[in-house]
Amino acid sequence: MLKIRYDAHTGLLSGWTDRKAEFDTLVARDGEDTAELDIVKPVGVDDYEYLVYQDGKLLPSGKSEPTPIVRRDLAAEINEIKARLNILEVR
C-alpha cells in the first residue's frame, strides 16, 4: 500500500509513504487531499515530485522519466505466504 498527499487542483504530489505506521501522520494540508493506493512505491523514483495523481493513477509529472509503476499481485503474495506456512508446519 502507498499513501500519497497531493494538490487537489494540479494533482502534484507533496508527500508519500509506504509505511503503514506513518499513514496517520501523512495528512492533507490546505488545498490538498490524500489517497491510499494498492501499489508499491514506484521503482527508480526516489522523489514523489516526479509524479502526478490523476484519475486514480500515478503518472509522470514531466520532470523526468520514472519507471512504470508495479502493481501488486495479491493472489501471488497470498499463495507465497501459504507455501511458507506449509513448510513451517512440516518442520
Order of helices and strands: EEEEEH
How much is the radius of gyration in Å? Answer: 16 Å
Q: How many strand segments? A: 5
Note the quaternary state here.
single chain
The low-confidence parts are: none
Mean pLDDT: 84
Determine the strand fraction and express it as a percent band.
Answer: 25-35%
The largest sheet is: 3 strands, antiparallel
Count of alpha/pi helices: 1
Question: How does the helix and strand content classify structurally?
Answer: alpha+beta
Total domain units: 1
Query: What is the general shape?
Result: elongated
Helix content: 10-25%
- Taking the alpha carbons of the first and last residues, their distance comes to 32 Å
Strand order of the largest sheet: 2-1-3
Describe the structure.
By secondary structure, the protein is an alpha+beta fold. The chain has one domain (2-90). The protein is built from one helix and five strands, in the order βββββα. The chain has one helix at residues 74-90; strands at 2-7, 13-17, 32-37, 51-54, 57-60. The strands form two sheets. Strands 2-1-3 form a three-stranded antiparallel beta sheet, with no helix packed on it. Strand 1 and strand 2 form a beta hairpin. The chain is elongated, with a radius of gyration of 16 Å.
Short description:
The chain has 91 residues and is an alpha+beta fold.
Chart the SSEs and their pairings.
Elements: E1 2-7, E2 13-17, E3 32-37, E4 51-54, E5 57-60, H1 74-90
Antiparallel strand pairs: 1-2, 1-3, 4-5
